[in-house]
Every structure is written in C-alpha cells, then in structure tokens.
Amino acid sequence: MEILILNGLINGLIVGGVYALIGLSLTLLYGVLRIVNFAHGEFVIGGAFVAYVLFNALGVPPLLALPVAAAVFFALGWIGYYLLMPRLSRSDDPEIMSFLMMYGMSIALAAVMLLVFEADSRSIDYAFEPISMQVGLVYVSTARLVAFGIAVAIAAALTWFLFGTLPGKALRAAIMNREAIQIIGVDVVKLSAFAFALATAIAGVTGVLVALVFPAFNPFSGAEYAIIGFIVVVMGGLGNPVGALLAGILYGLAEQMSTVFLPQAMAQIVGFAILVAVILIRPTGILGWRAQR
User: Fold this and answer.
1) C-alpha distances in Å from residue 89, one per residue of 39, 84, 93, 190, 254
2) Is the dihedral of CA 248, 281, 9, 259 positive or negative?
3) Is pLDDT above 90 for 202?
4) Interhelix angle 2-33/166-176, nearest 10 degrees
5) Worst-scoring range by mean pLDDT, 79-83, 86-90, 156-160, 287-291?
6) Which of 108, 100, 104, 98 is nearest to 46 (CA)?
7) pTM score
8) What share of the chain is helix, strand, coil (3-state, %, to 5)?
9) Angle at which helices 166-176 and 142-164 pack, to 10 degrees?
C-alpha cells in the first residue's frame, strides 16, 4: 500500500502539472478577453498531433517538437484573433456569442482531425534512455518525469513573465480592470491578440506533453481536457493564473490518489466532487479573493 500511495502521489504531480498548464492558458484567455473557449481542448490535442506528425514523418523527437508547436500555435492564435474577435466584439452579447462560436469551432476542429488522422487512437513510439528512473521506492517513466520538468519550467517562466515583466503586468492589469488600462493608453486590442496567441501556444505545447504523459490520444480527446481545464479554472478562481496552477496540481493529485483507494472509474467523480465542494465552501475559488483586489 505504501508503494501504491507513493506512486499515486508522483503520478498526481505529473498529471497535475499538465492540467495546471491547461487551466493557466484557459484562465488567461478568460481573464483578458472574457471568452469561454470550448475549443481549447482541441488546441491541446492539435499540439499532440503536431508532435506525432513531426516524429513519424520527419523523425523529430518530442522535445524538439515543443518550440515548433509553440511557434505554430502562437501564429495560429494571433491570426485567429484578428479573424474572429473583431466581429465577435461587435455582437450584442459577446460572451454568449463567444460561447457558441467556440463550441462550434470545437466540433469543427475535431471533425478536421478526424478527417486527417481517422478515429484510431495514436501514440508517439519514442523512448528516453533510460526508459524509467527510480524515485524513492517506485520506478517512473522517464518520459513522464521529463514532461513534469518541462511543465514546471513553463509554469515558472510564465509566472516570471506575468509578475516580473511589463507586458505580463499589463496582462494582469487587463484581467483586473480592462477599462482602466485603456485610460492610461494601453493598446487593448494588441494586448488581447497577444493573450489569445499566448494561450493558444501554451495549449499547443501542453499537447506535446500530453503525448508524453498519457498513453494515447485521438481527435475526440479534446473535450475531456477542456472539461478538466474548466474545472481547474473554477477551482483556482476565475482569471487567477496562480490559482489555476495550484488547482491543476490539486486536481491531478485527487484524480490519481482516488485510483489507489477507489475503482478507476471513480477518478472523475472525485474531481467533480472536489469542484462542487470548492464552489459550496468558497464560490470565488481557492485564490479567487486575490482576483477581486
């Protein structure tokens, strides 16, 4: 039992790191643009398919696929913002329209991936040397440890960017009060385009990590990751990046530890139960009070 608990804790941290990145990019997007992005899960799976194509067609290892996915998805996000958001902002109710538009985009992107890659589950047949490493009493896949290290590095870099640089502080200011930063001369349109592109790039990079951490993915996996992302965002506090990181780790630990003591099918139920408990006890989320300041 001791080994099972330790294994659950390690896997919970690894999976939670991936969930934290999904939640961080979603909450950044919602905080700055007030967009409920139902297509975010498809962006994540799109990143996994980029790594899959690069490895199988060109022999590019997953680690080198990370900057490629970041650049490709940043460009797509930047272009997508200027194609979609200006029209959306002129609608009578932008938030509701964004909800419907992103839901439609989610279905469309899943259909495109189904057309290109078919419905079979895919995986990247790449092995690190050594294939596993000993952590305490258990052996953990090297690919999972590498993915966790990358997730921690990305989270640290984003935290420094948001709290230590002028553009990052502008993004946080936009999350707190979008109208106020317009008064002092910040170009909100360019800032919003950057936020959309950055969130899309993080989703693409997270997709590469998904391909390393989870055994397989398919064109319909996006919805599952989008739902987990929304749970993490609500648990952490809407629009709070630090809260999303913390909630992602907590959700990952709860999901993996529940598989130690309960049937595996109960894992998601436990996650939803934690979400309901957080909403009942603290409706603003774990760190929601900080977002209100």
Assistant:
1) 18, 9, 8, 14, 38
2) negative
3) yes
4) 80
5) 287-291
6) 108
7) 0.88
8) 75, 5, 20
9) 80
Closest to 193 in 3D by CA, of 86, 101, 100, 98: 86
Residue with tokens 């997508």: 80
Residue 3 has pLDDT above 90, yes or no: no
Asked whether the bond before 86 is cis by omega within 30 degrees of 0, the reply is no
Contacts of 94 (CB under 8 A, 6+ apart): 34, 88
* Alpha-carbon separation of residue 245 from 49, 95, 160, 162, 228 (angstroms): 25, 24, 14, 13, 13
Tokens of 169: 């502080």
- And the tokens for 238? 């809407």
Which residues are within 8 A (CB) of 124 and not within 5 positions of it... i.e. 6 or more apart? Answer: 51, 52, 55, 56, 62, 211, 212
Residue 233's closest CA among 37, 11, 14?
Answer: 37
> In DSSP terms, which residues pair with 140 in a beta bridge?
133
Q: What is the DSSP annotation of 4-57?
A: HHHHHHHHHHHHHHHHHHHHHHHHHHHHHH----TTHHHHHHHHHHHHHHHHHH
Give pLDDT tens digits for 102-127. 888 899 999 999 999 888 888 888 88
* Rounded-to-integer distance, Cα 263 and Cα 66, Å: 34
Cα distance between residue 94 and residue 234, in whole Å:
20
Average pLDDT over residues 148-162: 88
